[in-house]
Amino acid sequence: MDGYFGSYVLVAALLAIGVAIVAGALLANRLLRPSRPTPDKLTTYECGVDPVGDGWAQSQVRYYVFTYLYVVFAVDAVFLFPWATVFDAPGYGLTTLVEMFVFLGFIALGIVYAWRKRVLTWT
Amino acid sequence: MMHLLAADPTLADFGKDPLWITIIKAVMLFVFLMLGVLFGVWFERKLISRMQHRYGPNRAGKFGLLQSVADGLKMGLKEDLFPRTVDKVLYLLAPVIMVVPAFLAFSIVPFAPMVNLFGVQTPLQLVDLPVAVLFMLAMGAVSVYGVVLAGWSSRSPYALLGGLRSAAQVVSYEIAMGLSFVAIFLFAGTLSTSEIVKAQEQTWFAVLLIPSFLIYVVCMFGEAARIPFDLPEGEGELVGGFQTEYSSSLKFALIMMGEYLHTFTASGIAVTLFLGGWRAPWPISLWDGANVGWLPVLWFFIKFVLTFSFIVWVRASLPRVRYDQLMALGWKVLIPVNLAWILLVAAVRNVVINEGDRMIGIGLGAVIVIGALAIWMRFDTVNQRRREARKAQVEAEFEELSKEPVAGGFPVPPLDLPHYHGVQHKEIPSGTN
């Protein structure tokens, strides 16, 4: 359990333990719980009134615009985090700083554009 | 000196434990989290009850301490239903996807420095990675899948809407949260949690980087979907949001546990990254023995409980915000402010490190501040609204003018009343009908 990937092996092991515990709980629950389904019990609850129509409602596309924006900023974070760690190391001086400024400037243009196009305004 | 070195674990101290120590630490973490959820629920209910002038749970056990145990048992033994229309596989998997990453996210939180665990010197932290904080963020993001899948597989409009909302909300607040960590990385020079705690030996980052801390505190509620921002399950609007179709069974218990663990992770990360981790608070930290051995677990726990209590306190104090307000706050305030703040910190830090570039650094800082202010003035929501209102008002005035060409823009009495034109005014005497 040493070397660079040692910790990641540990994470994988932890994941396995977590899945095992949850699966065990669900299995025990399955063995212990009563099961007497009736048609009424198996109806979708929704808001307590008998469901009307298909279960999947159509909804506005504006939710997915945010995922676009998210991708932009997630990429931004992927570049920012490593930059932040080497920023003050010797050999990375003002140039590194200015480069990141330019990059963040472009990113900021993106959000300003979305703002101007009223993507961020809800109504 | 050796003593001090031993007290501050670094990334190099990890991955050296024997297997049995690792297993013991993993079990300890799981026990801590499970007990934490059981008594955290009790603690939150008790605290919020006192804030609302009621007693809260007080029947099961002394002070109602066993209330959560009773609830858990009930949920474990209760009949579980798969409604007829649900997607069975995803419906079952969604709670698992929510709860397992929540466990993993907590594994990077350091509880104490090097401790003596059954004769082995080991840092009291299960895992530390060179990208520990990123790992925590990633685990938070994976849980969103659970929420979205729960909403989608339920085949219920409210559940679907709740899932979508949750996806948009959590990704938005995750960005702001990630950006609020960047300033810390600039100072600590690493993403490893143990080394970030080490970097807070002199000053806590909550003091040094107050804007980052405040932004994190706001994002914490958005990311963990706690009350001012619990839109994914807003019961006033969406019945129960993404969890509507999960009757109170074990699957529901798993969902609740996942959310609780997210709150714990949010508190744990707040303590680790901003509040000095396991370090003793100021007056106590003057004592040399405060940060050695098992004692720091106590400091960590006190800070952790206080942070969690703060989250509960906010829940008792604030109403739920509207969804558009939530998104506007995230995208128009938190993220831009964060970006400007990062640039400012970087510029100042550059001045401190590279003495020679002082003028350029200060110039850059000034440019950032002025630029950020200019953008703010241009795009601020309030200003935008004011401008639009003004525009609409002018528009309305033009509209009115076009109806009354005579007025020419000045307030004059109406000029075409009948008697101006000499039309006979006919009076109706009283008594006639």
TrEMBL record, chain A:
Pfam families reported for this sequence: Oxidored_q4
Domain of life of the native organism: Bacteria
Location in or out of the cell: Cell membrane; Membrane
TM region positions: 6-28, 63-86, 92-115
CC terms in the record's Gene Ontology section: NADH dehydrogenase complex; plasma membrane
InterPro entries: NADH_UbQ/plastoQ_OxRdtase_su3, NDAH_ubi_oxred_su3_sf
Catalysis: reaction(s): a quinone + NADH + 5 H(+)(in) = a quinol + NAD(+) + 4 H(+)(out)
EC number(s) on file: 7.1.1.-
GO molecular-function term, one example from the UniProt record: quinone binding
Keywords associated with the record: Membrane, NAD, Quinone, Transmembrane, Transmembrane helix, Transport
Topology within the bilayer: Multi-pass membrane protein
Similarity section: Belongs to the complex I subunit 3 family.
Functional description taken from the UniProt entry: NDH-1 shuttles electrons from NADH, via FMN and iron-sulfur (Fe-S) centers, to quinones in the respiratory chain.
Protein name: NADH-quinone oxidoreductase subunit
Source organism (scientific name): Nonomuraea deserti
Organism lineage: Bacteria, Bacillati, Actinomycetota, Actinomycetes, Streptosporangiales
From TrEMBL, chain B:
Annotated protein name in UniProt: NADH-quinone oxidoreductase subunit H
Record GO terms (molecular function): NADH dehydrogenase activity; oxidoreductase activity, acting on NAD(P)H, quinone or similar compound as acceptor; quinone binding
Keyword Signal included in the entry's annotation: no
Reported function: NDH-1 shuttles electrons from NADH, via FMN and iron-sulfur (Fe-S) centers, to quinones in the respiratory chain. The immediate electron acceptor for the enzyme in this species is believed to be ubiquinone. Couples the redox reaction to proton translocation (for every two electrons transferred, four hydrogen ions are translocated across the cytoplasmic membrane), and thus conserves the redox energy in a proton gradient. This subunit may bind ubiquinone.
Cytoplasm recorded as keyword: no
Classification via HAMAP family: NDH1_NuoH
Protein keywords: Cell membrane, Membrane, NAD, Oxidoreductase, Quinone, Translocase, Transmembrane, Transmembrane helix, Ubiquinone
A Pfam family that the UniProt record links to this protein: NADHdh
Taxonomic classification: Bacteria, Bacillati, Actinomycetota, Actinomycetes, Streptosporangiales
Cited InterPro entries: NADH_UbQ_OxRdtase_su1/FPO, NADH_UbQ_OxRdtase_su1_CS
